[in-house]
Write a structure and sequence with these properties.
By secondary structure, this protein is α/β, with parallel strands linked by helices. 33% of the residues lie in helices and 20% in strands. A hairpin with a 5-residue loop joins strand 17 (346-348) and strand 18.
């Protein structure tokens, strides 16, 4: 197995790629050129939109030595079995070129079921522009599904997505754009991106605390919408308006407060836009993810408020809602990272007396809560610049070739 490392900055500047051969664990530092013109194979142009694309045909004939076969697939039923049998018996690789990828579309679905090499027009154009052999991207496999190589083997991990159907769809999008799926989130991997459906849980905490890139699903959706762009790269989208894509530290969390003064309640609400959470009232408690208990509230007033809340919501202590003292909220805001809630856990007892975790209070910090209001908590110059310093702009992509 040969591993070629591609530095995207070089790729974009002059349409050339320097590739360093890594054989096993040793790197001999030699520079390789793997040319599309030297690659052998057969291109099956599937459908009128592909084989009637004069610009594509011209580029293929100019840049490659592939044999070309055109297939009109609009007439049903099309005999997929015949061309697949021929491709699998051939000593050279066969590639089935589609104008677009749609998992439910007739041609794509039939080819995918037969496990052949399916590639997009965009990948073929990327190879033509940069004189890169298709075999470098398909990894020598007998079958693959690759529309473009825009993600450049960027490692992608998901968190907080509850629907398997949604996860399968997102995973497919990553694969067809050349990304690598990771089940476990490993901060030791430099070129890893976490896509989060909401804040919370270990993966999100780890990404937040180590300054790794953590983005919303919208980032992947918009990349996929732009899949026909030959020059598309992972950083294309968030350069201009990164707030549309990066996850704030409380992304999509819903919080309810106990024992907050009007001033503290307003401060927490004012931070919603920057930190990504919503402050909800008791009527929306069933949709709540976190309950914040004011650590320095008057004990008697706090006890009365908790007793009343438990009488109206007796199942609250056994629910999935995370109950923490409010130092967690303010310290997360201050440190600009999503901290683990374990040390801030609060247990609500039937008598209304809250049991706080053993974490000793940071009295100097608690006394200055109000200084961390929406007006004074500046995220523009620190949070986003910190993430940019660890951004996708700096990672390298790699192509596995067997």
């Amino acid at each position: 197995s040969l591993l070629y490392t591609i530095k995207f900055e070089t790729w974009m500047e002059d349409n050339s790629v320097n590739c360093t051969l890594v054989n096993g664990s040793s790197n001999d530092g030699s520079i390789l050129e793997f040319s599309l013109k030297e690659d052998k194979g057969v291109l099956h142009l599937m459908g009128y939109k592909v084989f009637a694309n004069e610009d594509l045909i011209e580029k293929i004939k100019c840049c490659t030595s592939y044999n070309i076969e055109s297939h009109e697939t609009s007439k049903h039923p099309f005999d997929f079995d015949a061309i697949v049998r021929e491709s699998k018996a051939s000593p050279v690789p066969h590639y089935f070129v589609l104008h677009d990828f749609d998992r439910q579309e007739y041609v794509y679905k039939n080819l995918a079921e037969r496990k052949v090499r399916i590639i997009g027009v965009t990948l073929l154009l990327q190879c033509c522009v940069r004189d890169l052999a298709l075999s470098n991207f398909t990894g020598g496999k007998d079958y693959c599904s690759l529309f473009n190589f825009s993600l450049g083997r960027l490692c992608i991990c998901f968190t907080n997505f509850g629907s398997k159907t949604e996860l399968n769809e997102l995973s497919w999008m990553v694969k067809v754009m050349g990304g690598v799926l990771k089940r476990d989130y490993d901060t030791a991997i430099d070129n890893i991106v976490l896509i989060a459906n909401s804040a919370g849980r270990e993966k999100f905490e780890s990404a937040s605390q180590t300054g790794k890139v953590c983005v919303k699903r919208k980032w992947l959706d918009d990349l996929f919408k732009m899949r026909h762009d030959v020059n598309l790269l992972p950083q294309t989208l968030y350069i201009d308006d990164e707030r549309d894509y990066f996850c704030p530290i409380f992304y999509r969390l819903k919080m309810f407060s106990i024992g907050f003064t009007n001033v503290l309640q307003q401060d927490a609400a004012d931070l919603c836009d920057k930190l990504g959470h919503d402050m909800v009232d008791e009527a929306s408690l069933k949709h709540c993810t976190h309950i914040l208990v004011n650590y320095v509230a008057d004990p008697e007033e706090l006890q009365r408020e908790i007793v009343g809340l438990l009488e109206r919501h007796p199942k609250l202590p056994g629910s999935d809602i995370i109950i923490v003292d409010d130092r967690w909220f303010w310290e997360c805001a201050s440190t600009e990272s999503h901290l683990n809630t374990k040390e801030y856990t609060v247990h609500l007892k039937p008598d209304g007396a809250p049991s706080f975790a053993s974490k000793s209070p940071n009295t100097s910090f608690v006394g200055q809560k109000r200084k961390h209001s929406a007006d004074s908590l500046v995220l523009n110059s620190s949070l986003w610049s910190k993430r940019r310093s660890k951004s996708i702009l700096d990672v390298e992509g790699s192509v596995i070739c067997n």
